[in-house]
Amino acid sequence: xxxxQLLDTLLFFKHRHNEIFIxxxxxxxxxxxxxxxxxxxxxxxxxHNLTASKNMMNDSMAAMHGMHTLKLTGVPSYDFIAGMLxxxxxxxxxxxxxxxxxxxxxIKQLAENIIKSQKEEVVFMKKWxxxxxxxxxxxxxxxxxxEMMTKSMQVMHGMMTVKLTGNPxxxxxxxxxxxxxxxxxxxxVVMPYLKNEQIKTFATNIVKAQQHxxxxxxxxxxxxx
Length: 225
Hints:
It comes from Photobacterium damselae. The protein has 225 residues and is mainly alpha-helical.
């Protein structure tokens, strides 16, 4: 009788051992599947975010095409506004395109602020251009207009060299810094030649606002590294 009980006990433990072994194998398999799934999701998200960053940059460049085709009049005030208009439109498109992908609250707020402020300035610039189509030969200074556009383009070349990371927050900031710096350079170069007081004030405000945003972006970016 004792022998049968002992045999039953041994068989029971062997059976339990096999169950535990099988359960361990199943658990390890589930962990492996979970790891593979998370890796696949991460890879997919990374690809998606990189696509979002690429689209942001491409659409922004397309929106600023007007800067490259701009026919200078030689009147610094008029050419400054005519050049700044597509530049602002590029910043708006850039911000709107990336906004749904932004996860950092500060950068999301920055993008929303850029959209709001620069849309208001675009409205002003379009109205001003429409009411200043007549060119006074006395106001022509082609050299000033050419210098403004050349130096602005040189600074904006930094956008072309941005290495996208796939992190929309970082890519947006990395791209917006040279974009803002080009606007600042454009305003600073043309400032001494501006005869229209309204446009001189407008240019001054652009420099102040965008210098402030550049300082914030550089500070934020330094904390991400």
